[in-house]
Structures are given as structure tokens and as C-alpha cells.
Amino acid sequence: MDSKLIKYQNMLEKKITKQVQEWKVDENPVSHQELYQFLHTITGTAGTISLSEVSKTASDLMHQMGEEQKSWSSIEAVRYLRPVTNLFAVHKKNLAVTYSSEFTPNTDQCDKPLLLIVDQDVPYLVYSKEQLENHGYAVVVSPTIEKALSIFYDLNPDCLIVNPFHAEIDGYDFIKQVRETVAFELIPIVVISPSDEKETRIAAYQKGADDFFLKSLEWDEYVARIDRQVKRRKIVKDTLMKDELTKVYNRKFLKEAYQRISSEHLRHKDIFSVIMIDVDFFKKINDTYGHTAGDHVLIKFAEFLRTHLRTQDVVVRYGGEEFLLLMPYTKLEEAEKTACRLLENLSQNVFHYDGHSFLVSFSAGVYEVNSPVSLAEAVRTADRALYAAKENGRGRIETASSQEVVNRRLRVAVIDDSEVIRRMLESFFTDLEVENYELEIKTYQDGVSFFVDEWHQSNDEYLVILDGVLPKMDGIEVLTKLRKYPDTNRYKILMLTARKAEGDIVRALHLGADDYLTKPFSIRELEARIKVLVQRVK
User: Are 204 and 191 in contact (CB under 8 A)?
Assistant: First the structure.
């Protein structure tokens, strides 16, 4: 059993006991909204900390209250809560459910294929997102073309699913923009439509769709066809853009990858780094052990690079024994440290081939791209630094320039009326490591205290974890106010909603929430969403 989980369960029990005691002592009437809010807090909090029976019981009581806005006497309120308090009293030990690794980070979550669904029919978006996430996909949704374009360029999804019939603009123009911008990446586009007319299908294919679905398509076939598109894209990319020997990207892919990363960083006014690597004395390996031994070294060296770098880093076999690394959102000093770490780790690896054992090293040149430059210029600059490394004795790293590293600051605001949720998320974000970001976390029990604090008005980037139901100022009001800010793009907003609150989800998406998570949620699920919103943006 995880000690943190036990602590949060005990905190919730004390919170409930304290509130019940206050009602008993005060003997003042309890408003319908106050009791409803309290049950809502228990429902979301208990489910998140593995007290599923408490969560279900509180949820049932909340829904039994109905719409009638009546006042409750303190005795009635306490009696109404008795099914919940009895669970704590009778089953206190048993309620500490076996820890199911929910507090164990799982970085594989952010490696799921990412789908972007665009449709004005928000209930359909909500249902599709749930279904596809249940089948192992990460899913982001947008009811508007404008937001969909921003998501597309920022997150680079593995498949685009779009209903082109939008009131705001012709959705086929959106598909055309996507096709013209990233045609080389071969991102599959699936058109979904309520109409199966022949003319509609023909138009979809003529405008660039790879497949056409009816919205009424059964889900087993829907998922199978999406699986096919995502897998086909991976096979085609691997075939056209990967080096046959080493299985890392080849130079055909380099130009497109560099243009995409460069334009992305130009939009965000940020930097990235290029590292040119050359395996030391490679000719000697070939001459001593044979060319098949040289091939073996290249294969193993490429595998070494892939396993020791981040998922967003791009490894390209530039030619012969030269490899080029593209490192998004990475300053010079950090890239240099990465290259030094690679060199040190490689020195501890003994290569074995045909009964021979030998060590391999490399030389590298590091260049930080902090202003628009061509691929050719970036390669030349990194190559000059590589040449200096060779001239200075090999097995070393040289940089094209020197600059102090300053991580991007990401301010995380948790706005939730549950003290348990706030404490739990504060602990989670304190322990969370996000490449190239320094996290600063603050928690608020309501929207009013958040807006009063000038902390939320810096020039940094923000991630706002926002509960939908709050006292004084509810989550929708907070979202609406943030989206009216002229610099609103600095705020990534993840809404927390009740499991059955589809109406709240619809409103949140229309008002500009970047994603939503239904309570109760697991820490693993939250981490996956955070990785999508933060790491995949890089």
C-alpha cells in the first residue's frame, strides 16, 4: 500500500468528519447547493484515491437529490450523508484498497498513437474520445477548425479524423491546408459524415481523404479501420524515411523534419539544437575486422542512440559513419551535456563481433539554432564544431558557440475545492519531471483566489488544472475569463468534470478547454494527459 494514498484517504475521512460535526454543532439550515457541492467533492476525490465504494455511494446520493432547491436541516443533512459516513466507520481498514500502481509514473502512456477528431457535434466528440481511448489511443478533440489547426501544428497527430461540414468554413479547406503543409509526413486523414451519398464520398476522396466513415459505423469496424491507417502510416514512414541498415531516419526525412521543427520553434520564439556525430576510427574497424563488423557497429550505435535519447529527438544517419541529431527545445549547454553523457555511456559498452571485442567512441559538434537558418547552414556549423573535436584528439565534444541554459518555466495552477485533490496534485507535479521545463506549482480552492493572485499574469506558460464545479466562481466562469485574455494561448487548460456531466464537457470544449478529464481519475491517466499537453507540444 502506498503511504501517500493512505495519507490522502485519511485526509478525506477527516474532512468529512469535520464537516458533519460542524453541521451538528451549528444546527443551521444547510442549502441544497452546499450539500450537493459537498457530495460532488466526495465523489471525485474518493474515486481518485481508490475509495471507489465511497465515490459511488456519494454519487448516488448526489443524483437522488434532484433539481429541487430545498433547504435541509442540519439533522437531515447529517442523516442523508450517513451511507457515506457509515462506510468509513465500518470498513475503514478495508477501504484502504490495495495500491494498484496508480502513483507509479508510466511514460509509455505518452507514446500512444495520437488522434485528432474535429467535429461540431460535441456529444459525438465526447463519445468518440472515450471509445478510442478505451482502445489504447491518446485523443484530442476540437469542435472548431481554428482550434483544430492550432492543435494539429502543435501536436503533430498520427491520424486526423474530421467532419468537413462546418458552419464556420468549408472543412475541406482545412484538409487542403493539412495536405499542403505536411504531405511528406503522410498523416492519414479520415472523413466522417452522417451522409453516405455517392457525391459526398467522391468529394472526400478528391479532397485528400484516405478513408470515409459513416458516423453510424459500428465501433469494432471504426477502431479496426483507424488501426489500419495508423499502422500503414508507420510502415510507409519506416520504408521511405528510414535507413535500411540502421533503422534510424535517413537524409530523405531530414529536410522535412528540420523544416517542421524550425517553423515550430519560430512560431514559439524558441530554440533547438543540432548535433553532428562521427564514429571515431571507423575505417580502422573495417580494415581490422571487416566491413560486416563495421555494419554491426553502425547498427548497434544507432540502437544505442535511440535508447539513450528522448522520444522527441530525431536521429538521422547522415552518411557513412555520421549521424545527425535534432533536439527540439534544447539549448546549447543541455545538448552538450547530452552528448557528453552519450559519450561516457558508450565508453562503458563493449562491442562484440565474430569472437572479437573492442570499444567504440565518437566525436561530436553541437550547434544551437536560435534564429532562422537553413538546414545547410545548420549542418555546416555543426560540422565545423565536429571537425574541431577531431582535430583536438577525437572522443570529445565541441560546441559552435556557448550560451547559458535557462529552462522554460511552466507554471501549474491547480484550482479545486477539494483539499485532498489539491494536496495530491501538488505532490504529483512536484515529483514530475518534464524535459526542458522547470515546474512551479500553486493551488487554489476557488477561481476567485486564483484571479486575485498576480502570479497568474506573468509572461510564462501556464497549465491550469481546473475543476468544473467550484464555490463562488465555477470552472466554466474561470475558463471563460481566461479565454478572454489577449495572451490566452499561454494557458493550457485541463478541465476536471463529473463522469456523467456531458453538458459541462460540451460547454468546456466550446469555450476553449484544451482537454478534459473525468473524475474520478487515476494519476497514471493524468500523467498521460499532461504529457500530451506539454511534451508533445515540443
Answer: yes
